[in-house]
C-alpha cells in the first residue's frame, strides 16, 4: 500500500528549501480539481494502446527485440521532427550533455545559453566541464536574444544552446548564421517544444536539438526519457555509440561517462502519444487562443508572429502572483511558476560568481510569471473555470 502522505511530505521537505513556491503546489496536489499536467487523463485516454505496447515490450523474446523496438521509435520521432536521424536517451539533460561532449565541448570552453530556462540546460553544459555563459532572453517570447548572444561570444565559445522556452521558438536564422561564421556548434534545447515550428520549419531549426519526455512534457513518458534529433549522420553514429553501455566513442564517453539510452518501457508509453502529438498541440493552441481572448491587455508570454508554438505553458506576467495563486487554488485551479528562484540564484552555482542584475528580463519572468493549466485534456467548462478564477483572483 502506497503511503501518499509520506511521499508528499518527503518531496516537499526536499524541495521546499530552494523552491518555496512548491508550498502552493503541494497544497494543489491534494486539492486541485484542475491541474496543469493532464498526465493521468492523457494515459487514461490511451489506456488500451499503452497496455498493448507494454505487453509487447514485456513479451519481447530477447534484448535485440527491445533494441529494435526503441530504434523504430527513434525513426518515428525523427520523422515527426522532419529530420533524418534520432538517438533516444534517458533524459533531455543527458541528451544535451552527450551531444555537447560529442561536438567537442569540454573544460576551458564556454557555452552560451539563455538565463531563462530550467536548471538542466545549464547543468548539462556544466557537466561537460565547460562554463555556461548566460544571456538575457527577449522580453516578448522569453527565448534567447540574438543581441545577447553576439555580446556573449568570446574566443573560448564552443557552442550555443538556444532554448525554445514555453514551447515558443527562438529566432534561429541569425543565430545559426552567426554560429556558422564563427565555427561554433548550435544545439537547440527543444525540451518544451516538440512539434513547434518557425517559418514552417519544425524544431530543431538547425542541425541538432534535444527533447524531453519527462512526464509533464507535451509528449510525456511515465518517468523520463529524451531524444537527440539531427541531420548529421556522423554525429548520429557517434551518439548512438555514446549512449550505449557497450558504445565505444572515447571522446563522448570521456565527457558523458554514463550510459543513458532510452528505455523500451518508456517507449511503450510514448509511442501512442507521439501519434497524437500534432492533434494535442492543436488543442493546446486552441486553449491559448481562448485565454488570449479572455485576457486581452494582460502581459502574456507570446510566440513571434511566424511561430506555431507547442504551448507547453500559457504564461502571464502579473503582480501579486502568490495572492493570485492562492485565490485560484481555493477555487480548485492549480497554477505553476517557472522558475522562481531562477537557477542562476541557486547556491549550487554560487561559485560561478553570477550577478542576477545582468539578466533583468529573466529576473522579471521568474518573479512575475504564472503558468495556467492549458493541457489538451481540459474541458471547455474547465477552461471557463480557469478564466473566471483568474479574473476573480485579480479583481
Ligand atoms: C527547457 C528544459 N531543458 C531541459 C530540461 C531537462 O529535461 P529532462 O528532465 O528530460 O532532463 C527541461 C525539463 O523540464 C526543460 O524544461
Summarize the structure in words.
This protein is α/β, with parallel strands linked by helices and 395 residues long. It has helices at residues 4-16, 22-31, 39-45, 47-58, 63-80, 92-102, 119-127, 146-152, 172-182, 233-242, 250-256, 264-294, 321-330, 360-368, 380-394, and strands at 85-89, 110-114, 131-135, 157-161, 185-186, 188-189, 197-198, 201-202, 208-212, 226-230, 299-300, 307-308, 314-317, 369-372. The protein is globular. Residues 15-22 have low confidence and may be disordered. Residues 91-93, 117-118, 120-121, 163, 189, 191-192, 212, 214, 224, 226 line the site of pyridoxal-5'-phosphate.
Write the layout of secondary structure elements.
Layout lengths: L3 H13 L5 H10 L7 H7 L1 H12 L4 H18 L4 E5 L2 H11 L7 E5 L4 H9 L3 E5 L10 H7 L4 E5 L10 H11 L2 E2 L1 E2 L7 E2 L2 E2 L5 E5 L13 E5 L2 H10 L7 H7 L7 H31 L4 E2 L6 E2 L5 E4 L3 H10 L29 H9 E4 L7 H15 L1
Parallel strand pairs: 2-3, 2-4, 4-5, 6-9
Antiparallel strand pairs: 1-10, 7-8, 7-12, 9-10, 11-13, 13-14
Bound molecules: pyridoxal-5'-phosphate (PLP).
The site of pyridoxal-5'-phosphate (PLP) has 15 residues, from α6 and α7.
Amino acid at each position: 500500500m502506497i503511503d501518499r502522505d509520506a511521499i508528499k511530505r518527503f518531496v516537499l521537505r526536499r524541495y521546499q528549501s530552494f523552491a518555496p513556491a512548491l508550498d502552493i503546489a503541494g497544497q494543489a496536489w491534494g486539492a486541485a480539481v484542475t491541474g496543469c499536467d493532464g498526465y493521468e487523463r492523457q494515459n487514461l485516454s490511451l489506456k488500451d494502446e499503452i497496455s498493448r505496447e507494454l505487453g509487447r515490450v514485456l513479451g519481447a523474446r530477447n534484448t535485440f527485440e527491445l533494441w529494435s523496438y526503441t530504434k523504430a521509435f527513434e525513426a518515428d520521432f525523427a520523422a515527426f521532427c522532419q529530420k533524418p536521424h534520432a538517438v533516444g536517451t534517458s533524459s533531455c539533460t543527458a541528451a544535451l550533455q552527450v551531444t555537447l561532449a560529442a561536438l567537442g565541448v569540454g573544460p576551458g570552453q564556454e557555452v552560451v545559453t539563455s538565463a531563462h530556462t530550467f536548471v538542466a540546460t545549464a547543468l548539462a553544459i556544466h557537466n561537460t566541464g565547460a562554463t555556461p555563459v548566460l544571456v538575457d532572453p527577449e522580453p516578448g517570447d522569453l527565448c534567447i536574444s540574438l543581441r545577447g548572444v553576439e555580446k556573449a561570444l568570446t574566443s573560448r565559445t564552443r557552442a550555443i544552446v538556444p532554448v525554445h522556452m514555453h514551447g515558443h521558438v527562438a529566432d534561429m536564422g541569425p543565430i545559426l548564421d552567426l554560429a556558422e561564421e564563427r565555427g561554433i556548434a548550435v544545439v537547440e534545447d527543444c525540451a518544451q517544444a516538440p512539434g513547434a515550428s518557425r517559418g514552417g520549419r519544425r524544431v530543431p531549426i538547425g542541425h541538432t536539438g534535444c527533447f524531453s519526455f519527462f512526464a509533464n512534457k507535451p509528449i510525456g513518458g511515465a518517468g523520463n526519457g529524451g531524444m537527440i534529433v539531427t541531420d548529421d549522420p556522423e554525429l548520429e553514429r557517434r551518439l548512438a555509440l555514446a549512449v550505449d553501455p557497450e558504445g565505444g566513442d572515447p571522446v563522448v564517453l570521456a565527457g558523458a561517462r554514463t550510459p543513458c539510452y532510452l528505455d523500451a518501457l518508456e517507449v511503450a508509453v510514448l509511442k501512442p502519444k507521439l501519434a497524437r502529438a500534432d492533434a494535442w498541440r492543436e488543442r493546446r493552441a486552441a486553449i491559448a487562443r481562448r485565454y488570449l481572448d479572455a485576457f486581452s491587455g494582460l502581459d502574456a508570454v507570446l510566440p513571434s508572429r511566424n511561430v506555431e508554438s507547442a504551448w507547453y505553458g500559457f504564461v502571464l506576467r502579473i503582480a501579486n502572483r502568490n495572492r493570485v495563486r492562492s485565490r485560484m487554488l481555493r477555487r480548485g485551479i492549480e497554477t505553476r511558476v517557472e522558475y522562481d528562484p531562477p537557477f542562476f540564484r541557486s547556491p549550487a552555482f554560487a561559485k560561478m560568481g553570477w550577478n542576477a542584475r545582468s539578466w533583468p528580463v529573466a529576473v522579471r519572468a521568474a518573479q512575475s510569471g504564472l503558468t495556467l493549466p492549458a493541457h489538451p485534456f481540459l474541458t471547455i467548462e474547465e477552461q471557463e473555470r480557469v478564466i473566471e478564477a483568474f479574473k476573480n483572483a485579480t479583481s
